[in-house]
Specification:
mainly alpha; globular
């Protein structure tokens, strides 16, 4: 995140035909066997968060954390976020 100036990269190309996503709790084919895991907003905002934070080795502990606390995916199907503010910001940046 430091190199991005606090911004989050959204890969819009993942919306193309034949593109795939990584399922929650899937082990990634990368050194250290990182695991794709749902995150709470507090975890996303944590400056110590790195792609290597959750691994095959720590996966069991991560599942125990999720079972003990709020499930980050509990309201996934019910949450809605509008893109109006993002569109206005993009228009402001690209205008001119």
């Amino acid at each position: 995140m430091a190199g991005r100036g606090g911004r989050i990269y959204l890969d819009i190309m993942r919306n193309g035909y034949g593109q795939t996503v990584v399922a929650a709790y899937a082990v990634r084919g990368r050194p250290g066997a990182p695991v794709a895991t749902p995150l709470t907003w507090a975890e996303v905002e944590d400056s110590r968060l790195t792609p290597e934070r959750f691994t095959l080795r720590t996966g069991t502990a991560r599942l125990a954390e999720i079972r003990a606390g709020p499930d980050p995916l509990a309201n996934f199907g019910r949450q809605r976020y509008g893109l109006g503010a993002a569109r206005r910001k993009l228009a402001a940046v690209t205008a001119g």
